[in-house]
Write a structure and sequence with these properties.
alpha+beta; Methylamine Dehydrogenase, Chain H; 2 domains; three-stranded antiparallel beta sheet; 5 helices
Amino acid sequence: MKPVFKSLYLGIVLCRICLSAQAALSHELITPTSSSPSFEQQMAETTRKMDQDMVAAPLTGDPNHDFSAMMIPHHQGAIDMAKTFLLHGHDAALRRLAQEIIVTQQQEIQVMRLRLAALQSAATPAPHDKKQENNSSIPVSEKDRVYTGDQTSNTISVINPASNKLLGVIRLGDPVPGALSPLYRGQLLVHGIGFSPDHRTIAVVSIGSNSVTLIDTATNNIKVVVYIGRSPRSVLYARWEGTLGGCTWRRLCLCD
């Protein structure tokens, strides 16, 4: 074989060896190794840990305390299962549902932890302060309104606190499972609510659709929806005069 052809042949062989090695490395990086736990193994381990933590939860005999103490590890198990599914599952609707489970169950865990702390504080008697009691005794009027956000139905409920009656529902989107459609365009995971300083407008943040909805409290009509491109969670105001959605605001601040 002539030197020129011999060099060319060796170059082709070396090139094929490099390409084969690169392909093998890429396949190794993309394909899970045989030592990685399977979906079934991860779910079984999550279920085992959830059951173990629920059994180990400290119980006092008070249903309010014991319910929260056992439901916290239960919800954490649901979060871990949803995270495992997101690593393996590909169905678009189920992936969106898993993401919603993670968000909502984390928030519910936080609520139960706060309730446990409140129950513990209530068990410790505090000195009686008549002055403080008189200041906090503000009568409830028929004109008062309570607004609550529902992440599952994507609505705002309007309640009369004097009669404890539901006056109506402001619909910001569709309930689950309709809200899980890839073509869904409404608000998703309605979460935080804040009042403007004059109490004429409420700002509602939706953490799934990354939006803020401004609602007129006199008519309960939606003024405007602002999409902010991130996941807001709560609303507060600072001293700054500006105009947004046809109303005058002090600065509208969002907390992620």
